[in-house]
Write a structure and sequence with these properties.
Elements (H helix, E strand, L loop, with lengths): L2 H13 L3 H23 L10 H36 L5 H4 L3 H21 L9 H27 L3 H23 L5 E3 L11 E4 L4 E6 L1 H11 L1 E5 L6 E2 L4 E7 L4 H9 L2 E4 L8 H15 L7 H20 L15 E4 L4 H15 L4 H17 L5 H18 L6 H4 L29
Parallel strand pairs: 1-8, 4-8
Antiparallel strand pairs: 2-6, 3-5, 3-7, 4-6
C-alpha cells in the first residue's frame, strides 16, 4: 500500500460521518452481551431490581428517547449545513464534518440505541438484566448532556468570528506542517529549475484528475538520494491536476521507469478538493470567501469583513515573520535532491487582501481596517517582505482615490482603524490630545 493510499484512507476516516457512529453501535451490542453475562453471575440490591414488564417499559422508553435525540442531531446538522454554505463558504463544510464532537454524540446515541435493543431481547420471565437497564438509563442521561454540549458548540460556531478563528488556527497548524515538510528535510530546494539544458530522463504524469492534497516530501528526498538523481516537482500542493499533467521530472539516475513512476506517484495524494493540512493558502482562501460573501450586495455585512480581516492579519503576520526560507536551487549546485515550487509571501498577501479590497471598496470600515492591517504588517514582517506590503498599500490608496473621489467621507476612508470604524485615535509619541470643552447642562 502506497503512502498516498494510506493518506486517502486516513482522510476518508476523518471525514466520514458513519465510521465512528458504527463503532458506537458495535460497542453498544458488545456492551450489552458483557452486561448480560455479569447480570447472570451477580446479584444486585433489591433497589436496583426490575420486574420484566418494568424493564421492558424502561428500555423501550430509552430507545425511543435516544432515537428522537438522534433525529434532533441530524436535523441540527442539516440546518447548520444550509446556514454555513449560505452564509460562509461551502469549503467550510470540510471542517464541519471532521468535528469530533459531532461524531462523538452520534456514536453515543446510536450506541445507546443498540445497547437498549440488545437488552430488550434478553428480558425473560425469570431473568432481567438489572445492571443493563440501569446502565441504559445512565447512558440516556449522558446522551442528553452531550447533546446540549453539541448544540451549544455548534450554535456558537455559526458566528462568523468563530469560523474565522477556527480557520486561522488551521493556517497556523498548516504552516507548522509546511515548515516541517520543507525546512526540516535536507536536500530540498526552492524552484524554479532554471539553467538545465538536458532533458529529464523520466517524466511522471498524473493518471487521474484531482487536486494535490499532500506530498510525502521526505520520501521523495529519500528516493532521490537512493537513485542519485534530481527530482523536480512541477506543481505545488493545492493545484488541480488533469490526467496527463506532469507531476515530477527526474534528471539523472537509473532504473526501470515503470517502477520509478509507481513509486513517485505513491508519494502524492490526489483528491476531489484541497485540504488545509499542507496548504496554508487554502485556509486563507476560505476566510476570504467568507468575507467576500459578507461584502456582497445581497448580504451587505461589512462588520463580518472586518472580523475576517482581524484573523487574516494575524495569519499574514505569522506568514511574514516566520522564517520559511528554503535554499534556492542553482545550476550545478546539486545533483540530487528535490526542487519544489515555492509560494512567496506576496502570493499569500495578494490572496488575503485583493478580493476583500475589491468587494469592500465602498465600505469605509473595511478600508480603514485594511489600512491598519497593512501598516502593522509593514512594521512587523521581515524586511524582504515589506516591499509587497507597501505595494498593497499603494493599491489601497488607489482604490480609495477612485471610489471616494467625489465623497465627503474620503478623509475618513483614508484613516487606519483597527476596529474598522469608531476606534480610538492613536496619537504619535509626545502629541497631546486636544481637550474639547463640554457645554454645561441647563
Amino acid at each position: 500500500m502506497t503512502w498516498a493510499t494510506r493518506f486517502r484512507i486516513r482522510e476518508y476516516l476523518r471525514e466520514s460521518l458513519w465510521v465512528v457512529p458504527s463503532l458506537g453501535a458495535l460497542a453498544g451490542i458488545l456492551g450489552a452481551l458483557i452486561v448480560v453475562l455479569i447480570d447472570e453471575h451477580v446479584k444486585v440490591p433489591s433497589d436496583w431490581a426490575y420486574s420484566s414488564p418494568t424493564a421492558s417499559t424502561v428500555l423501550s422508553a430509552v430507545a425511543g428517547a435516544v432515537a428522537a435525540l438522534t433525529g434532533f442531531v441530524v436535523t441540527v446538522t442539516v440546518l447548520v449545513v444550509q446556514m454555513a454554505t449560505g452564509t460562509f463558504s461551502a469549503r467550510y463544510m470540510r471542517l464541519w464534518y471532521r468535528d469530533p464532537v459531532l461524531k462523538g454524540v452520534l456514536a453515543l446515541l446510536i450506541g445507546t440505541l443498540a445497547f437498549a435493543f440488545s437488552l430488550l431481547r434478553r428480558i425473560e420471565t425469570n431473568f432481567v438484566p438489572d445492571l443493563g437497564v440501569t446502565l441504559a438509563e445512565v447512558l440516556l442521561l449522558a446522551g442528553l448532556v452531550v447533546f446540549v454540549v453539541f448544540l451549544n458548540r455548534f450554535v456558537h460556531r455559526l458566528r462568523p468570528v468563530a469560523v474565522a478563528a477556527l480557520l486561522a488556527k488551521g493556517v497556523r497548524k498548516s504552516l507548522d506542517d509546511d515548515l516541517l515538510h520543507t525546512r526540516g528535510v535536507p536536500d530540498v530546494f526552492a524552484g524554479p529549475l532554471e539553467g538545465v539544458e538536458e532533458e529529464p530522463s523520466l517524466t511522471v504524469r498524473c493518471e487521474h484528475p484531482g487536486a494535490i492534497q499532500a506530498v510525502n516530501l521526505s520520501a521523495v528526498v529519500t528516493w532521490a538520494r537512493r537513485h542519485e538523481c534530481l527530482v523536480e516537482m512541477r506543481h505545488s500542493v493545492g493545484e488541480f491536476m488533469e490526467a496527463g499533467d506532469p507531476l515530477f521530472a527526474v534528471y539523472g539516475g537509473s532504473g526501470r521507469s515503470d517502477v520509478a513512476e509507481r513509486d513517485l506517484r505513491g508519494f502524492v495524494a490526489l483528491g476531489l478538493e484541497r485540504t488545509i493540512e499542507q496548504d496554508p493558502a487554502f485556509a486563507l482562501r476560505v476566510i476570504v470567501d467568507m468575507a467576500s460573501k459578507a461584502l456582497s450586495p445581497a448580504i451587505n455585512d461589512p462588520t463580518t469583513g472586518v472580523q475576517a480581516l482581524d484573523y487574516l492579519g494575524a495569519s499574514l503576520r505569522r506568514l511574514g515573520t516566520v522564517d520559511r526560507s528554503v535554499p534556492r536551487w542553482r545550476a550545478g549546485a546539486a545533483e540530487r535532491g528535490v526542487v519544489v515550487p515555492a509560494r512567496r509571501f506576496e502570493d499569500y498577501l495578494a490572496l488575503g487582501v485583493t478580493e476583500i479590497r475589491e468587494f469592500g471598496a465602498t465600505s469605509i470600515q473595511v478600508m480603514r481596517r485594511m489600512r491598519a492591517l497593512l501598516e502593522k504588517l509593514e512594521q512587523e514582517v521581515h524586511p524582504e517582505n515589506r516591499a509587497a506590503v507597501q505595494a498593497e498599500l499603494a493599491r489601497l490608496n488607489a482604490t480609495i482615490a477612485a471610489t471616494y473621489s467625489d465623497s465627503i467621507d474620503r478623509d475618513r476612508a483614508e484613516i487606519a482603524d483597527r476596529q474598522g470604524l469608531g476606534g480610538p485615535d492613536r496619537l504619535e509619541p509626545g502629541e497631546a490630545a486636544a481637550v474639547q470643552p463640554i457645554a454645561p447642562v441647563r
